[in-house]
Amino acid sequence: METAAAGSRRPPALRLLCPKKSVLSSPFPSLLWLVGSPRFLQPVTVAAALRCLRFLSDDGPFSPDLPHEADEIRGLLVRGFDIVGGLFVGSANFESDAGRALELAGELRERLFGERASHGMVGGCVDASTGDIRFLVSESGGSEVVEGQEVLWGDEPGRSLLEKGCLLRCELQLQLPLYLPSDETMSGIEARFSSLIESTAANLRSPHVSYLVEGPTATFDESHHSVILHGNNLNSVSQLPINTNTNKCSAKIVSCSEFLPTKRHDLSSIRENADAIQITVLSNQSLNISKAGSPAPMLKYFPAPAPASLRVIDLKLDILCYSSMDLPVAVAVSELVIPGLADQLSIMKKAIVSELLTQQPKLCPYHFIPPGLLIPLTAIYDTRYGEIEEKQSELRRNLHFRLGLPLDRPLLRTSNALTFGAMERRDRSSSKSGSSLLRDVHKEIPSSGVSGGIMSLIEGSYEYYHYLHDGIDDNGWGCAYRSLQTIMSWYRLQQYSSINVPSHREIQQVLVEIGDKDPSFIGSREWIGAIELSFVLDKLLGASCKIINVRSGDELPEKCRELAIHFETQGTPVMIGGGVLAYTLLGVDYNEASGDCAFLILDPHYTGSDDLKKIVNGGWCAWKKSVDSKGRSFFLKDKFYNLLLPQRPNMV
């Protein structure tokens, strides 16, 4: 019966939770490293795909530089996720390439974790002409390889990851004393520093180290759960039973689920409201471990054999881990958190060692879940010179390549990082926006009424600026200023700029500084138009603009196709100016066959309070047709219009 059962067993299926685009749109040829969580997810499940970027020869993806790849991916992956396979994209020879991908993935995994995988591994190919995926599976890390028969793309993959697992976060500030003899050689300094890092990592399991485990900030209707785990008791916890009845068990057996709120955030909001179990490292120096049993403190003196100098190495560790909900938290700390801290220490050692005697790098880890990815990733930035420094820009660009992210928008800047806890969210929110204005008001409006049209909209968030904001009475003259402020808020909220949205006076000062206006312009109520807006955007942001001149309001529908391309490629708000009033355009709905179209107008002439219902019902943000059902023209026939199309900066 066992033979029959084995013979009738279905071939393994490959489950892909990552978006199709991240796999099938990779350049030909390329090699993808497949990331999963074999400990917590179903076998042969892929949660993300990372591009291989480092190669040994012109043979490209078939000769990856595995040591270099391992060094970069080690800092990127959070503990709890693992390499589960490799995939050649654009392969023409499945029989040889799938096996090669499987072999390379196994070697990379061994370099990352110091041992061969005990879980199933995948090696596959994406056909260059059809996009079909074929794959081999080595089950349970064995030598037997079978061909899989089915590729399953996940339905609501982010939901399955969140329902099955949770995040743990540990921050640790360290000041490590490095004593250097005056005649020490560079190799000797490096050896001393390496020894210091290794002893620090070993001390994470010391009897003098304890771990305070707490849930995210408790709400009024939820109790705050916490336990303390001691370092020397974490070496034999891997076989702890899973037990959800925590009222009658020790702290070791408490599962991770006990620390999380009943209501958790979904993937759409986790980037700004990440729930994570908080792990705090404590030094328990009062623990009595002396053989004599004396409770008195002890002081040891080690005289230096030669003159020496002291250098204090400041390190900021910050790690994330992914765990199943029912895993005992002691196991999570022992097998995920502590190894994660040790990994980050090792990574920082390599980054610092060459600059020990000069200016020490100021390394700071940040965690991200960029659009298109479902799992958190960590990037370690040197913050000495700011984010625009050339090396940091190049590091982000490489990360965009590896993650398959677009190269024309900032998705991995520090302001894009995950936020944890109410205090951090409040600080981040105030630094991001600096205001409490309404955002994205167009999301509440009804459809345009264009039959068979294709809708092209602004991409990203903006703030709604209109008349009488900020205590300024600009009724009758400030509409273009308000449209500019809305555009500026878009650049700020998409992290292209950190400068505040300028006031009317600051806008006027810019135009005077560049020589476009006389000094008397400052403080006046003089109108500005599309040309002036382009000058200000160039001066303050370095953003270029395209301007479309339209001789009559009747001609505006003819520009719908060009505007649709703008929203699809640039995604920025458009300012409509000209002979009469200024508006902000957020999108178009266009039926190319019939020519029917509508314009999504955000009207800066609104003078009421920031009441979303009032704004929507009053048509201050609404779809407008060039000529409505009653024959009234929104755009005037006898007036010209200038359309300002701000361009998205090509930057990361």
Automatic annotation (TrEMBL):
<dbReference type="Pfam" id="PF20908">
    <property type="entry name" value="UfSP2_N"/>
</dbReference>
<dbReference type="Pfam" id="PF07910">
    <property type="entry name" value="Peptidase_C78"/>
</dbReference>
<keyword id="KW-0378">Hydrolase</keyword>
<protein>
    <recommendedName>
        <fullName>Probable Ufm1-specific protease</fullName>
    </recommendedName>
</protein>
<dbReference type="InterPro" id="IPR049387">
    <property type="entry name" value="UFSP2-like_2nd"/>
</dbReference>
<dbReference type="GO" id="GO:0071567">
    <property type="term" value="F:deUFMylase activity"/>
</dbReference>
<comment type="similarity">
    <text>Belongs to the peptidase C78 family.</text>
</comment>
<keyword id="KW-0645">Protease</keyword>
<feature type="domain" description="UFSP2 second">
    <location>
        <begin position="313"/>
        <end position="420"/>
    </location>
</feature>
<dbReference type="InterPro" id="IPR012462">
    <property type="entry name" value="UFSP1/2_DUB_cat"/>
</dbReference>
<dbReference type="GO" id="GO:0006508">
    <property type="term" value="P:proteolysis"/>
</dbReference>
<dbReference type="InterPro" id="IPR038765">
    <property type="entry name" value="Papain-like_cys_pep_sf"/>
</dbReference>
<feature type="domain" description="UFSP1/2/DUB catalytic">
    <location>
        <begin position="455"/>
        <end position="644"/>
    </location>
</feature>
<keyword id="KW-0833">Ubl conjugation pathway</keyword>
<keyword id="KW-0788">Thiol protease</keyword>
